[in-house]
Amino acid sequence: MADRKEEIIQAGIEVFAARGYYNTHIAQIVEKVGIAKGTFYLYFNSKKDLFISLIKRHEKIFLEVFDNYTFDTNNKNLKIFLEEMLLGFFKIYKKHKNLSIIILREAVAVNEEFGDEFKRMEEKRFRRLQDLYKFLIENNYISKDIEFDYFAFAFLGIMESVIMRKLILSEEDFNIEEAADKISDYLNKAIS
Amino acid sequence: MADRKEEIIQAGIEVFAARGYYNTHIAQIVEKVGIAKGTFYLYFNSKKDLFISLIKRHEKIFLEVFDNYTFDTNNKNLKIFLEEMLLGFFKIYKKHKNLSIIILREAVAVNEEFGDEFKRMEEKRFRRLQDLYKFLIENNYISKDIEFDYFAFAFLGIMESVIMRKLILSEEDFNIEEAADKISDYLNKAIS
Amino acid sequence: MADRKEEIIQAGIEVFAARGYYNTHIAQIVEKVGIAKGTFYLYFNSKKDLFISLIKRHEKIFLEVFDNYTFDTNNKNLKIFLEEMLLGFFKIYKKHKNLSIIILREAVAVNEEFGDEFKRMEEKRFRRLQDLYKFLIENNYISKDIEFDYFAFAFLGIMESVIMRKLILSEEDFNIEEAADKISDYLNKAIS
Amino acid sequence: MADRKEEIIQAGIEVFAARGYYNTHIAQIVEKVGIAKGTFYLYFNSKKDLFISLIKRHEKIFLEVFDNYTFDTNNKNLKIFLEEMLLGFFKIYKKHKNLSIIILREAVAVNEEFGDEFKRMEEKRFRRLQDLYKFLIENNYISKDIEFDYFAFAFLGIMESVIMRKLILSEEDFNIEEAADKISDYLNKAIS
DNA sequence: TATGAATGAGACTTCATTCAT
DNA sequence: TATGAATGAAGTCTCATTCAT
């Protein structure tokens, strides 16, 4: 039953998000689903296996933001361009809040165990960002003085900082439209 | 013997940095120091106790950057102001590379166990940043339109993003002067 | 369906022979047959039940060698007598190689669980050997000095040693005629 | 403490001999020694690790029989020669009855897991037997018609058959002098 | 007859912590 | 202060067997 697998994934997302990888135990996940321990292992080979599924799911969701984004120049200035993209990411992060918590948290923490998975994911992200960077350069949106590295660091750094603090650590509601507006404004001023 | 305690802290920094909190075992730390397991518990109540010591040490070091920084306006524009401050942080992070790795990594990962410590630390950081923000506003370095939250997110986000990727994840040497120059330039444009 | 039960037995023989009793899992057997796990339990009460079936099957096959053997004295000396009998056993072991592997291997290994079955089997074997022994004594093929115990040990010991090493552990083809010739020669010299 | 390790080995020998490898659990061994489970793992990495220790111990003991045996021809005929050697083995097997049970039983049963260890051991045994065989040929104790393979099969086969049935499976006391006398007599007649 | 998802007891192993010396 | 052997709770995972369909 594919539903059962999905149930386990959903429970995993909740528990991993609440307690972190190492403080999450299979017992907690199966209790949440309401199944026996053995059942978990019908669908996943190990705790690690489930976790890798979550990484891959996040990767897929995240990259779709780029894929769904049309790189066109009609009536768009850089500010609007960045704003739309940031809004896309914020929506995804908000919709998949728990999954996002897990990835942002463990990507940097459990690298001993999932280093390869996270590295692959980071590389894919950077490749997409590079496409964006090239597009912006070619269409004169940003100056050639801007190095890709720092463009990426600024973009990801501010975005993740906002996500972490506004979405994940904070209890209050996160107004993503406002955030996308403000950050795109700063980024626009910083790099155009 | 205070030296013995310091030896344990140093070994802890190395091992925690290399393997992460949950993959670090007391056995590895005491082996590095060359003492018996029991001896560890003469100086620290638990593994957690040692780790909290490291958080506090980092906090102290980090906040000193603010303390050592003179908030004056002589001949300084915002760009230079930010550049000097960033350079200060980069120097500290580079000097205490392993300790920085630990904090940046686990601050977000192990909150189940150290949530309170990290929250306290974050609050102190924000209070200092707030002082800086007020100073910049009062002296017309930045516009009143800039909200504190986004100022902080941008400043910390870019800085930590660069630290993580240039200092921690990358093998190459990290040219901190160049980084401080570039990032302060972007920030200056973004918020002035 | 008797065929279905036989299919399971055949798959069991293959897998038990290849992996041993404890390393064989029901999952492997049913996969080989191409049936579901539940189906296995329609034909056998347990893994142990299947295994006991195999022991009984081997016992039946083995004892038939004695039954098919005519104890007559026409033109036969002891050497020829023993040679024919050994050849009979070798043929059976070769024909039922996997079953033989299982029995020789586990007879001695899993006695905790199958002790009773194997003991019963050994007793039957010894009763047939005793008939043979009496026949040989009564017809002056062997001296009365030869005790039954040692006759049996020598006969079974050499035979099983050859089976184990030539048939089971070795990859090369096993020339059973040559083996029967040589061993019967030694046995003849040893006990006549 | 080397004594503690030896205690575990002794308990392991008893339990493995009584129950077989797969039916022996660490819990039973540590209970016999009177220690906690964790203590077991201070001395052995795993159940398998302990078992391999036992294989090596047996190998050492067994090969010493050959080493302690002087290959000289003074006043010895083949019968006496073989009798002395068999007696040597029987003494060792009797002295180390439980260890012998384990090895004879599992050598053939658990090859999936300990195949390499047992193969190495069998090779060493055969090398020593080959030395003996050459010595017997060179000193005209046995005819050149006797092939090594069958010499080895007969020697080991009868010996192990006796060991298994008289020493291990039987409850009665095993008169090793009588057994050595009889078997050496048969072997002498068979191969001289 | 046949299925196969589900079960759960119980195995092995880890490692922070203790305590007698 | 210092030791390090010992502890044992608790974790992950296995697999023969069951049972509703």
Would you mind describing this structure in some detail?
The structure is a homotetramer of 192-residue chains. The first copy, chain A, has helices at 2-19, 26-33, 37-43, 47-68, 78-95, 97-109, 111-138, 148-168, 176-191. With 192 residues, chain A is mostly helical. The first copy, chain A, has 2 domains: 1-44, Arc Repressor Mutant, subunit A (Orthogonal Bundle), CATH 1.10.10.60; 52-191, Orthogonal Bundle (Tetracycline Repressor, domain 2), CATH 1.10.357.10. The C-D interface holds C 19-23, 104-106, 108-113, 147, 150, 153-154, 156-162, 164-166, 179, 182-183, 186-187, 189-191 and D 19-23, 104-106, 108-113, 147, 150, 153-154, 156-162, 164-166, 179, 182-183, 186-187, 189-191. Chain A binds a DNA duplex (21 and 21 nucleotides) through helix 3. Chains A, B, C, D: This is Transcriptional regulator, TetR family. Chains A, B, C, D: Keywords: DNA-binding. Chains A, B, C, D: Residues 2-62 form the HTH tetR-type domain.
Q: Give me the number of helical elements of chain A.
A: 9
Number of domains of chain A: 2
Record field, number of beta strands of chain A: 0
- According to CATH, the fold-level topology of the largest domain in chain A is Tetracycline Repressor, domain 2
SSE string of chain A: HHHHHHHHH
Computed structural class of chain A: mainly alpha
Radius of gyration of chain A: 19 Å
Fraction of residues of chain A in helices?
over 70%
Gross morphology of chain A: elongated
Q: Please tell me the overall pLDDT of chain A.
A: 90
